[in-house]
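quick one before i forget lol
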Amino acid sequence: MKKIQYTMDIKASAEKVYKTMLGLDNIETYNQWTAEFNPTSTYEGSWEKGTKIYFVGTDENGKKGGMVSEIAENIPFEFVSIRHYGILDGENEITEGPDVESWAGSLENYSFHEHNGITTVTAEIELAEEYLNYFDETWPRALNKLKELSESGK
């Protein structure tokens, strides 16, 4: 596993950025910034600490798939930690075996630090090294979209 980190300065309050990122006022804001990873990206579940959450999308045949995760921590407007432990294949959860063992238990952490009206968002992700190039291309685009959404007031 490799830890990578991406940051973005956003001219908005930590509360605004946090709510936009998680889609708390409108799930569409979550869907829009995560569309950089998958155009059909969304989530099912709650951001409450200790709860299961699915990060899902559909493939070209309309089949649902994604990550099975747990909210390991959620401190509003400050920090969110997601522990990934399985994949969703249609309606089936796969939480063991070769498809998940290389990354099961990996964390995706988000920090929000506000100073003088600018919030610095830090995304820290643990991942298998074969995904590094993909994330190095995709994460900056996704955080730019989050910036655009948070600063536009939508």
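fyi The mean pLDDT is 94.
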